[in-house]
Amino acid sequence: MANTSEFGGSSPSLQNYASAASAVKLASLGLIMGISLLGNASLSLLLLKDSSLRKAPYYFLLDLCLADAVRSAVCIPFVMASIGGSAWPYSALSCKIVAFMAVLFCFHNAFLLFCVSVTRYMAIAHHRFYYKRMNPCTCVAVLCMVWTLSVAMAFPPVFDVGTYKFIREEEQCIFEHRYVKANDTLGFMLMLAVIVGTTHVVYIKMLCFVYDHRKMKPAQLVPAISQNWTFHGPGATGQAAANWIAGFGRGPMPPTLLGIRQNLHNQHPTPPTLVGIRQASHLGNRRLLVLDEFKMEKRIGKMYYMITLTFLILWAPYISACYLRIFVRGAPVPQLYLTAAVWMSFAQAGANPIISFMFNKELRLRLRACFPCCLGTQTPMEPYCGNWDSAGL
């Protein structure tokens, strides 16, 4: 949109239009920044305060929230200060710093969401490996790798490899996307597109895995072999448990069977372990992904996929405008479209907490637990399989 300075000698109606446009921009950016700071701060405090949420998926979510909060607090105020002006009101170095941080957090989101998609696939398809390897040290290593790659992508333009400058049409300091032969920002945009596309491919592969394993073969009953009431063979565990439930472990019994019951009780003081059912006394040795945990993993995967999809939707208009500038020399981009695209990219910083609470039942329950006056009846949390004791962290 046009700036007020461009209408110095114009009619009062055009000046009023420019003033109204600036007011709308300031109000919308202020709303975006407020929602982003409030939502990300609330979710971050919840993740830090509640020990039951100290698990690998939520460590990544915490890093994502903190990065979005810093982006909103640092980048958006400078954009608000530049609205209505034709030049950057601060020094050239500050422009490069703001542009560097904006690009840094954009690539950080892209790289982190890709790594999360890989861990979500491992949690579903290779749960035993995920259970053994996805510990706090691994999470820290993944986050360090994500930040290192993000800095590597955002730092070269500081030395004019590509260009960070104030773009008047966008009213922000960012890449100057020109024709492909004029500068080299194409590589940065291609990398961003490849990362986002690969992330969706991983989620599609996970969806195909879940669909393929919905059709399970029916269990084949193999009778156990009995010898002196000691059951062995493929069906031994189930047969022994069935006999225990049928009366060997409780209730009145005929005198002829009382001695047998006593012998079995001496050999098996507790009911035999059922195949495929976890016993409470062996929580530290759990390896199988049971139904409750599978549902929880699916919900967390759905939450992260919605975050990834929202990232793509909100950044797609701006990325499309950038590609248009790169491949079409002097391509005219409508000012209204460009402004809306930039504002949508800022809105992405506040969308993650909303999506997290919408698509994650566990987070909603823990949030309500923090406000007992607003909580009617508490629903017990579903178990989640983790490979470290949250109480010990």
UniProtKB/TrEMBL annotation:
<feature type="transmembrane region" description="Helical">
    <location>
        <begin position="188"/>
        <end position="211"/>
    </location>
</feature>
<feature type="transmembrane region" description="Helical">
    <location>
        <begin position="97"/>
        <end position="116"/>
    </location>
</feature>
<dbReference type="Pfam" id="PF00001">
    <property type="entry name" value="7tm_1"/>
</dbReference>
<feature type="domain" description="G-protein coupled receptors family 1 profile">
    <location>
        <begin position="39"/>
        <end position="356"/>
    </location>
</feature>
<keyword id="KW-1015">Disulfide bond</keyword>
<keyword id="KW-1003">Cell membrane</keyword>
<dbReference type="InterPro" id="IPR051509">
    <property type="entry name" value="GPCR_Orphan/Phoenixin"/>
</dbReference>
<feature type="transmembrane region" description="Helical">
    <location>
        <begin position="340"/>
        <end position="359"/>
    </location>
</feature>
<keyword id="KW-0297">G-protein coupled receptor</keyword>
<keyword id="KW-0812">Transmembrane</keyword>
<dbReference type="GO" id="GO:0004930">
    <property type="term" value="F:G protein-coupled receptor activity"/>
</dbReference>
<keyword id="KW-0325">Glycoprotein</keyword>
<dbReference type="InterPro" id="IPR017452">
    <property type="entry name" value="GPCR_Rhodpsn_7TM"/>
</dbReference>
<dbReference type="GO" id="GO:0005886">
    <property type="term" value="C:plasma membrane"/>
</dbReference>
<dbReference type="InterPro" id="IPR000276">
    <property type="entry name" value="GPCR_Rhodpsn"/>
</dbReference>
<feature type="transmembrane region" description="Helical">
    <location>
        <begin position="137"/>
        <end position="159"/>
    </location>
</feature>
<protein>
    <recommendedName>
        <fullName>G-protein coupled receptors family 1 profile domain-containing protein</fullName>
    </recommendedName>
</protein>
<feature type="transmembrane region" description="Helical">
    <location>
        <begin position="26"/>
        <end position="48"/>
    </location>
</feature>
<keyword id="KW-1133">Transmembrane helix</keyword>
<keyword id="KW-0472">Membrane</keyword>
<keyword id="KW-0675">Receptor</keyword>
<keyword id="KW-0807">Transducer</keyword>
<feature type="transmembrane region" description="Helical">
    <location>
        <begin position="304"/>
        <end position="328"/>
    </location>
</feature>
<feature type="transmembrane region" description="Helical">
    <location>
        <begin position="60"/>
        <end position="85"/>
    </location>
</feature>
